[in-house]
Amino acid sequence: MNIIARDIPPRAAWALEQGGVHPLLARLYAARGIRALEELDDALARLLPPAGLLGVREAAVLLADAIAQDLRMVIVADYDCDGATACAVGVRGLRLLGARHVDYLVPDRVADGYGLTPSIARRVKERGADLLITVDNGIASVDGVAEAQALGLSVLVTDHHLPGPVLPTPDAMVNPNQPGCTFESKSIAGVGVMFYVLMALRTELRERGAFDKASQPKLEPLLPLVALGTVADVVRLDSNNRRLVAQGLKRIRAGFMQPGIQALFTAAGRKSHEATTFDFGFALGPRINAAGRLADMTLGIECLLTDDPVRALELARLLDTINRERREIEGGMREQALIMAEGLCADGITPPPAISVFDADFHEGVVGIVASRIKDKLHRPTFVFAASSAPGKEHELKGSGRSIPGFHLRDALDLVAKRHPGVLLKFGGHAMAAGCTVARDQFDTFERAFAQVAQEWLDAATLTRRIETDGPLAPEYCRADLVDTLHREVWGQGFAPPTFSEEVEIVSQRLVGEGKNHLSLKLMHQGRPVDGIWFGHTDQLPARVTLAFRLDVNEWKGERRVQFLVEGAQSPAS
């Protein structure tokens, strides 16, 4: 492990500080590429204009015509948090803008698989729909779009995933990653794309005289949903995404949110008036995702759609129960998968350049989480496979992969598919996360082929885990109120939460937790005592060690004290 301090451009930090930014925040922002105060302006007026999205005008016209003709619309959503929030934004937003017949359908992870398939298109038709709208999927649904159109449906695709070699031909398509689209925020989430489509639709309706600027429906109440889906999907928080998230957080903290979001905060034991991006990523998002993994994502979507607080709380508590079950399943799978992964280490220590594991008892709804855990522990691109539970698909394995910086997972799958035709039945995804389906008897071929690509693409430096930090923490900043200030800011993928590093003295250490799998620490930080904890770590540390750590506040009997959340360690000499 290498702990490396980020470069902090002194001029940028100074300029931000002169503009009134707290000195610590100025330093953190400068290290993340912020050069001017206006880049921190999260006003809605500074959002990228919808017109920059290829196809958004055609989408707006298609939807406006459908509203004018009182057509029936059905949204086909993905079964993760981004898909659920995008669906809720779509249903709520279209109804707000005058659509009277808006329904949704979410594929079953097991029975249907991902995206708009021909069978899903037929089910949409059976519901009496005139217009099919995809959210967070569709760019790869060539056959599904064709089937929908053959059935007489109009089709609007809204998506953010990377396209394959062949594109569908819907009536309109909005995806910043489709060829020819110059929209700057390529990392916008599916929920963000749908929100942008609604903004364009409102403009189109305004131009048609449905309302004027003063009387037009407000879309801002949808921003809490947009913020939740954006963070939960772990997309890169570029300046545009940060603005969307910041606006959503402001509304939640002020008490303005959908009953389902408030209910999820309650079920998770979190305070909505103190909402942070960490709440989205580690409390609300997992509870929504659990429905898609183990049950039916309809539960998650209904929680976000209902305006009845009592019903919302009922659904949120059900989602909490499902999430507890998910954690139990995940725990057992993680242990087994880790044993299998460690068994691949030739010398008992060094993992191969890529890891693929399969067990007949694995649950396909949890493979992505387990892949993420193994990737985090071993710092290798990882795929975890489970047998398909879909009728007639027993011979197939469904895999979910997670990657490390410097290894584009979807591109790797594309190369495997080219080198070994027929091994991958289907695949798709992003640089850091992807999914695929392989025939059971082809798993060994996939494992070897995937490892071979990793062997060719990855060098020793990339395979060494690096933790980028913001360097030492001045003792005057080690305060609970300042930690609160840091937590209120927008952090996430591509705009990393503050992590500090420096040499400390270990005063005492002991294992804690039910399974004795967390290391509790008493530290001396620049001559001051501080508590620390390293979750999931059991190895003892030397008396002096360089730690990488995040800041948190531990509240006990009314006293709030700063504690260090340890992320990594290396000897001071290394």
Topology:
Layout: E1 2-5, H1 10-18, H2 23-31, H3 56-68, E2 73-77, H4 81-96, E3 102-105, H5 118-126, E4 131-135, H6 142-150, E5 154-158, E6 172-174, H7 190-207, H8 223-232, H9 239-253, H10 259-268, H11 277-294, H12 298-305, H13 309-342, E7 355-358, H14 367-378, E8 382-387, E9 396-402, H15 409-419, E10 424-429, E11 433-439, H16 443-457, H17 460-463, E12 466-469, H18 480-488, E13 500-512, E14 518-525, E15 528-535, E16 544-556, E17 559-570
Parallel strand pairs: 1-12, 2-3, 2-4, 4-5, 5-6, 7-8, 15-17
Antiparallel strand pairs: 8-9, 9-11, 10-11, 13-14, 13-16, 14-15, 16-17
Helix pairs in contact: 1-2, 3-7, 4-7, 4-8, 4-12, 5-6, 7-8, 8-9, 8-11, 10-11, 10-12, 10-13, 11-12, 11-13, 12-13, 13-14, 15-16
Walkthrough of the structure:
The protein is 40% helix and 20% strand. By secondary structure, the protein is an alpha/beta fold. The protein has 3 domains: 45-257, inorganic pyrophosphatase (n-terminal core) (Alpha-Beta Complex), CATH 3.90.1640; 343-463, Diaminopimelate Epimerase, Chain A, domain 1 (Roll), CATH 3.10.310.30; 467-570, Beta Barrel (OB fold (Dihydrolipoamide Acetyltransferase, E2P)), CATH 2.40.50.460. α3 (56-68) crosses α7 (190-207). The protein starts with a strand and ends with a strand. The model has no long low-confidence stretch (mean pLDDT 95).
